[in-house]
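Exercise 7.
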Amino acid sequence: MKTGKIFASVISIVLLWFFMDFVLHGILLDSLYKESASVWRPMEEMSHAAGFAVSVIQALFFVLFNLAVSKVQNWRSGLRMGLGIGVIVGVCMANFYLYLPIPIALALGWMFGNAIEYGFAGILVGFWEARCSK
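Solution. The predicted structure, written as tokens, is:
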């Protein structure tokens, strides 16, 4: 994959995740975060710049892994790989339920949310691979 495809994939995934994270964490799971507020840092102590940097790095490694290991060629193969990685990441996130006093619904939201986010990210990788290979 050429640098342009990698760049387009990473940027589109970061934008997608920003939107999906807003919906998932800011709307759908908001009441569960408030229910377990004693576990989390106050909003003014959270670093949005660090969160953005982590998202860019995460998206870059996701794209490179998808292309190197799974040889993504279209949106279908991207979806398969994205869902696979998303389930793994989601299960790891849900594992925090064992260690933190959070509602099980929050852990399940993380698990399914990650699977969905990574599935869509895989679709984007496949889209850019197919579009830029012609």
